[in-house]
Amino acid sequence: MSYKKTVTGLVLLLTSLQVALLSFPALAKPYKGAEIFTNDAELYGKYVFRMRSANGSGVISNFFLWKEGSELADVFWEEVDFEVFGKDGGYSWQSNIITGLGNRTTSEQVHTASTSFAEGYHTFTLEWTPGQVRWLVDGQVVRQTTGGQANDLSNPAQARFNFWPPNIESWVGPFNESTLPLAMFVNWFEYHRWNGQDFEFSWRDDFNSFNNSRWSTADWTFDENRADFSPLNVTTRNGYLVLSLTHEGMEGYSGTPPIDSGSSSSSSASSSSSASSSSSSSSSSSSSSSSSSSSSSSSSGGQPCSCNWYGSSIPLCDNQESGWGWENNTSCIGVNTCSNQWGNSNPVSCSSSSSSSTSSSGASSSSSTSSSSSSSSSSSSSSSSSSSSSASSSGSSGVNCSGVNSYPNWTAKDWSGGPYNHAEAGDRMIYQNNLFRANWYTSTVPGSDASWTQLGACQ
């Protein structure tokens, strides 16, 4: 949205900017906000995240794409915004594209949802392809821009989250400092690269810890911001990213993030960092036998099955039914996690012979014919989702664990001079005489959540 005001005869254009016209190192403003941004910039892609916005007039919870250097006078501005207002209970948000050199073009649209973004987590998706941008909320397309400004988005962009109080009351409402501290929460974030024809899953962050090799924090401010950004207001807690807005001198977050309880309306709850073995078990026990046999047919029928994960095709895992895994040198997804995603009633697809095995719900000789018995009688693939992070087909006969680090002797560093403090995707670690493989960047106890797959007991 654009705003104009006259100052000594000059008309200044104030836009709904995430990064201001001129940013500078943080000054001693009375309030402290927060911003993070990816260290790498990508040209096109799909960005998916589960977020709960802050509730309060005068603040906005944001995700946006930003071409670095756009604020400079001689650089063409390129920005795409997802901005959720805290005013009026958190029901409205704004989509925007900002482009141009000198006189910038904006295309703000305000959208109102039927539920509050501040009272629960929602899945937001931004799809950016050559000449097109789409904004989706909970799997539903809310806006699509084709051509025009979308054609001007031609350079790699960083992904950014920030939380701040604009000083433009006509846009965000009056600010009341007595409501501080406030916070916005992100459960998980995914990036899917654009291969020229479709999106391909690239990486995911469940925010079990702050990954300094992937993200950086801001320490600057700008004229339209009542606050300056402080790295101390960027926190990861219980598998959630927390961006806080506080008074100066009271930075940080000491509370407990609200739980993302959207497992029945979103795929993400079962595969997020907050998902536990017990919640996975609940997901598995309530899933239909056809889902169980679908997973079995993928491994035993010889025909690959895939998941339509919010528009991207992801292979189904053979050795786990919930969470994310790593098989055949690529990421895979459990059938239960795939099937539980919001807004897609039939996301699993297989070839004809595999589909036949799925519908028969019992043709596979390597897993039992019913959901209730699969967790106890299957010898080659455990169907119980409670063991999704601790059971696999290779676990029954024992595995060779020689030369593998034992927890907590981590395998990877965030930077070359730092300590070993996490595992990367594919890294293996031993815990309680069992061998585990990391599905993605993780610093949790092996086997404690969906970021791990158990490969078996050590011989």
Topology:
Elements lengths: L1 E6 L2 E6 L8 E2 L5 E8 L6 E8 L7 E7 L10 E9 L6 E9 L4 E2 L2 E4 L9 E8 L2 E6 L2 E7 L2 H4 L5 E7 L4 H4 L9 E13 L4 E7 L9 E3 L2 E2 L5 E3 L4 E4 L2 E8 L20 H4 L5 H10 L2 H12 L4 E5 L2 E4 L8 E4 L2 E4 L1 H5 L8 E3 L1 H9 L10 H7 L27 E2 L5 E2 L6 E3 L5 E4 L2 E5 L13 E6 L2
Parallel strand pairs: 4-19, 27-30
Antiparallel strand pairs: 1-2, 3-18, 4-14, 4-17, 4-21, 5-11, 5-15, 6-7, 6-14, 7-8, 8-9, 8-10, 11-12, 12-13, 15-16, 15-21, 20-21, 22-23, 22-26, 24-25, 28-29, 30-31, 31-32
Index terms:
459 residues, mainly beta, 17-stranded mixed beta sheet, 4-stranded mixed beta sheet, 8 helices, 32 strands, 37% strand, disordered N terminus
Quick overview of this protein structure:
The chain is mainly β and 459 residues long.
pLDDT averaged over residues: 78
Estimate the strand proportion: 35-45%
Please mark out the parts with pLDDT under 50 across 5 or more consecutive residues, or reply none.
1-26, 263-303, 352-396
Number of strands: 32
Radius of gyration: 23 Å
Helix coverage percent? 10-25%
The global form is: globular
